[in-house]
Amino acid sequence: MSGDMTHDEGHGSVAVEQEHGHGVVAENPFADPGLPEHQPRLTDIDEKVARKSERIVAGLFILSALATIAFMVCYTEVPNNTATIVDFFPIGAISASNFALGLTLGVALFSMGAGAIYWARTLMTDVELPQERHLLESTPEDKAVAAAEFQQGLEDSAWKQRPLIRRTLIGAMAVLPLPALWILRDLGPLPGTTQRQTAWTAGELIINDNSISLDGTQGSGIKPEDLQVGTLVSASPAAVLTAGDNAVNMMTMSAILLVRMNPADIKSQQEIDWGYEGIVAFSKICTHVGCPVQLYEQQTHHMLCPCHQSTFDLSDNGRVVFGPAARSLPQLPITVNADGYLVAKAGFDQPVGPSFWERG
Ligand code: FES
């Protein structure tokens, strides 16, 4: 059996001659029907209808801009907590903040897209044009043709003739990226206002974390005689008991570790002065990227961070002896009050936690 195929390149029709059995010739069943005759739309022939379409497109772009602005307002004004919720069938109860942000950003994007599609379908040209295939590397002539076609497209899109659409689109596009700047706030609080401050002040009572009641309002102070040499205790400022919703944040920033060691083991005079009878207090937040340090080795007085194995020598100003942390653990100066309970002598002398750009 053998076959022979020819192409009619005029309209892409294909004639196939096929020798089959005693020489039957088959007709090509897929002739190119060509393009149907172009039918003008109402907007092509009636300027009143075209202007109505123009106003609809402009209205959608304006709605997009308003929704974008509403997104930014909602971001700052709608409380971001689970106490304020919206019952939204069929999803169920969701945070009011999430609902408002999702709704406004959704309307902004949808209106922008709907406006562009309506503009293309009603006012841009709908004349069908064949597009020739060509090599990936365009010739200078092709580039010139493309530039000319781009210009023609600009004309056909009525970009120049419809200033209302042009201006509202530019306006909506200009405000659309703003939410990206707005939500940069989610990267965290500014270091100057929070990372430099903890709840420790002179005279602040140190309470044992293990003594804090389930509702977070009761806790016990610590006396020096409660701590034996080698003891490690997680502790917080008494202010967390009355901090309400802010208690967790406060505990996170102000968490300390109390360690009692033999005073003779302490290598630094400052550390002796800032401690009380061998009891020293250090920030519990690793200075690498902020994990809680808690693995204490009594013999060496080394404190290990479980995240990346930074190791601090608590007998030597919390100095880094191993790992990626670049700074010592900050030490909290402590003493006892008139009732014999351990209290802070002052706040930390430096920010606690990971390094940031304002810190050497
Ligand atoms: S967070 Fe502690 S070593 Fe990385």
Automatic annotation (TrEMBL):
Top-level taxon of origin: Bacteria
PANTHER family: CYTOCHROME B-C1 COMPLEX SUBUNIT RIESKE, MITOCHONDRIAL
A GO CC annotation given for this chain: plasma membrane
Domain Rieske: residue ranges: 279-343
Species annotation: Actinospica acidithermotolerans
Gene Ontology molecular function: 2 iron, 2 sulfur cluster binding; metal ion binding; monooxygenase activity; oxidoreductase activity, acting on paired donors, with incorporation or reduction of molecular oxygen
InterPro entries, A to Z: QcrA_N (IPR045603), Rieske_2Fe-2S (IPR017941), Rieske_2Fe-2S_sf (IPR036922), Rieske_Fe-S_prot (IPR014349), Rieske_Fe-S_prot_C (IPR005805)
Sequence similarity: Belongs to the Rieske iron-sulfur protein family.
Protein name (record): Cytochrome bc1 complex Rieske iron-sulfur subunit
Main location: membrane
Entry's transmembrane regions: 56-78, 98-120
Subcellular location: Cell membrane
Membrane topology category: Multi-pass membrane protein
Keywords annotated in UniProt: 2Fe-2S, Cell membrane, Disulfide bond, Electron transport, Iron, Iron-sulfur, Membrane, Metal-binding, Oxidoreductase, Respiratory chain, Transmembrane, Transmembrane helix, Transport
Cofactor: [2Fe-2S] cluster
Pfam families: QcrA_N (PF19297), Rieske (PF00355)
